[in-house]
Request: fold
Amino acid sequence: MKAKKSYRVAIIGGGPAGSACALALAQKGITDILIVEAGDYTKFRIGESIQPESLRLFEALDIDRAFLQEGHAPCYGSVSYWGSDKRGYNDTLMNPLGHGWRLDRVKFDRFLAMQAHARGVELLTNVQLKNSTSAVDGGFLLDLASKAEGKQSRIHADFVVDAGGTAALFSRQRGSCKISTQPLVCLAVRFAPKEAEKQEHQGLTQLESVEDGWWYGAYLPDDSLLLAFYSNAATVKSQQLLQLTRWRELLSRAVNTAKLIQNAEPLSNDILSFAAPSYCLDHLCGANWLAIGDAASCYDPITSQGIIKAIANGLSAADVITGQTDLHQFSQSIKTMYRHYLTMRSRYYDLEQRWHKSPFWIKHHSRISH
Ligand SMILES: Cc1cc2nc3c(=O)[nH]c(=O)nc-3n(C[C@H](O)[C@H](O)[C@H](O)COP(=O)(O)OP(=O)(O)OC[C@H]3O[C@@H](n4cnc5c(N)ncnc54)[C@H](O)[C@@H]3O)c2cc1C
Reply:
């Protein structure tokens, strides 16, 4: 692990939030920035749909042209069976910014981190923050562990940005707690579709609500088809949905989603399971630190807003660190955005009223969701 002893800004986590923050700081002329990333951008990451508005953020970070050269798949909107069996469309035809994208997430996260590195940001991969304490003369002491080398080291940072995703380790070490509502579990399987099926559906995301949750289907840039079921932990447990046969039984009852894989084989017999929580931290910042992206607040994937929010938070954090806004304003704006998100989420789930006795929908309807 080749780290210096001290940095002006240490960013924990090199996902979209952390890399965007580093890029924005570098753009403002701040040097001496470190990103500490636990992974190495090789393992599958979920979360791939981004809206056309993302382009504005890429422009702000001056990476729009480089992003377009990366060849992520276009996404022209979504088809949904939500509230009834009637097909609904939400397309990007009229959007002045054009289409959105279906990202190769590993490639995208690596791209952002490499753009930051190319602008002088130091990037440590396979290195994890383990512990953090306030330094006597200001800033923080961070204990880092390198997975590959098995080495530990201690560095000092004047300012720390927690962009460590849902782990939010640094913020929790400062005493912050997550105020959660309605966590979901995502159970995903990737399929290899036949050519004819691809041509019919590529470029559109598909959503379908069912009695115990909802299905999501999307083609990834590697041409695989990702099908994911979103529900709550109790349903996953009681219906044993971590078993592929049970998951497929449930899928066969979601007729519109099942059609997508009529002739397709799963790429693996393992179900990929992901927590999809919704929360906001009670304390988003303190003296010389703040949290951004999923570390600060986490949205239901139905919104497809997580990546855009992470990047926007990264830009706002850079404004705080360079003194253009203060910590209070920053914290208020994240909390306000979170309240808007809760309202939007309720509106969306309220559109589905077919299963009044389903525990999933009872929980998600606005009467009791706040
Ligand atoms: C099932 C699912 C589907 C989703 N679908 C979408 C979608 O379609 N569109 C969308 O916009 N959003 C989606 N999201 C949300 C989106 O993935 C997140 O909001 C986004 O990744 C947040 O970015 P981030 O940088 O804040 O956190 P992350 O992307 O989680 O990055 C955090 C980084 O911190 C690193 N890290 C964690 N702890 C430490 C530590 N102690 N030391 C060092 N590094 C550490 C991790 O390795 C990781 O790279 C989805 C989420 C889920 C769960």
Observations:
- The domain at 6-48+103-178+278-343 is CATH 3.50.50.60 (FAD/NAD(P)-binding domain).
